[in-house]
Design a protein that fits this description.
With 126 residues, the chain is mainly beta. 3% of the residues lie in helices and 50% in strands. The protein contains one helix and eleven strands. The strands form two sheets. Strands 2, 4, 5, 6, 9, 10 and 11 form a seven-stranded mixed sheet that branches. It has a four-stranded antiparallel sheet with strand order 1-3-8-7, with no helix packed on it. A hairpin with a 6-residue loop joins strand 5 (46-51) and strand 6. The termini are far apart.
């Protein structure tokens, strides 16, 4: 079955950087819009960023623009999230999701997604 596997999380000091990866298998990756979401303890899941199936269009939640960058490598079936200038409030479990040919700007508004990963923990210490 389809698998989305996130990696790259960990513990980092405030101001540091991490790059998350989400590797897809058994999925026609280049036909799927890919997104990143996060959920902090006691909070609702939050949209972070999305990239269109070609990678030509990206969309971010406004508060994270300039610090986070989403990208994808369709040859490697992988989507990335580069996170810079990390803050303690970025601490969360980060999940990737896939939606078949959804507009990138719509992905954040959707409740249901075609596929989800299991998540990777990011902890930012102050």
């Amino acid at each position: 079955q389809v698998q989305l596997v996130e990696s790259g999380g960990g513990l980092v000091q405030a101001g540091g950087s991490l790059r998350l990866s989400c590797a897809a298998s058994r999925l026609p990756f280049s036909s799927y819009t890919m997104g990143w979401f996060r959920q902090a303890p006691g909070k609702e899941r939050e949209f972070v960023a999305a990239t269109s199936w070609s990678g030509g269009i990206t969309y971010y939640t406004e508060s994270l623009k300039g610090r986070f960058t989403i990208s994808r490598d369709n040859a490697e079936n992988t989507v990335y999230l580069q996170m810079n200038s990390l803050k303690p409030e970025d601490t969360a479990v980060y999940y990737c999701a896939a939606d078949y040919r959804a507009p990138a700007h719509v992905m954040g508004a959707r409740i249901e997604h075609d596929y989800w990963g299991q998540g990777t923990q990011v902890t930012v210490s102050s």
